[in-house]
Amino acid sequence: MAFGKKAAKLPTNDDEFHAAIKEVGHLRGQLATLEASMNNELVPIKERFEKGAQPINNQLAVLEAAVEGYAGKHRKKLTEDGKKKTVKLPTGKISWKARAASVKLVGDVADIIARIKGLRSVKAKALLRTKVEIDKSAVIKGREFAETIEGIEIIEGEETFKIEPFGSELA
Questions:
Q1: Within a domain: residue 69?
Q2: pLDDT in tens, 14-66
Q3: Phi then psi dihedrals of residue 117, to 5 deg
Q4: Does the predicted TM-score (pTM) go above 0.85?
Q5: Cβ atoms of residues 115 and 124 within 8 Å
Q6: For residue 152, which phi and psi values (nearest 5 degrees)?
Q7: Distance between alpha carbon 126 and the CA centroid of its chain, in Å?
Q8: Which of 37, 66, 85, 130 has its CA 20 to 30 A from that of 8?
Q9: Measuring CA to CA, how many Å separate 127 from each of 22, 100, 124, 132?
Q10: Dihedral, CA atoms, 23, 27, 30, 32, nearest 10 degrees?
Q11: How many structural domains are present in the chain?
């Protein structure tokens, strides 16, 4: 038994069974009400702290921009002519890191692929890749054949139990 949980007495008849489902709904409703109350109380607290943090964040942004500006102006000296990317200082460290290049496809991807295919060069073909993967839906549909292949194992779906008490819900 999990810590803090009481062992439940099993219903002995249909009436007790239906009453237990109704009680599950009632208890879940109480939890939802408590959660909503908690969130309502947290909103002004969060807003108060965010309001207090705003001038600090503004001051921090200005100071960080100033430090970055100074470091950029003196980068050659700080990095020993580019030998270092990270500079350890008495009060902390600063570093420059180049982000990896990224690709932006402008327009319809199918059109871009068609243009690359039309080039017919090895360099152009190297820009495309074909992805081969196992179609798990097809494996399930053809399970008799698929299970004869080493490495494929079909695991039966597990049954779950769900309680959905009837009740009204707020939109």
A1: yes
A2: 999 999 999 999 999 999 999 999 999 999 999 999 999 999 999 999 999 99
A3: -60, -35
A4: no
A5: no
A6: -105, 125
A7: 32
A8: 37
A9: 60, 18, 5, 17
A10: -120
A11: 1
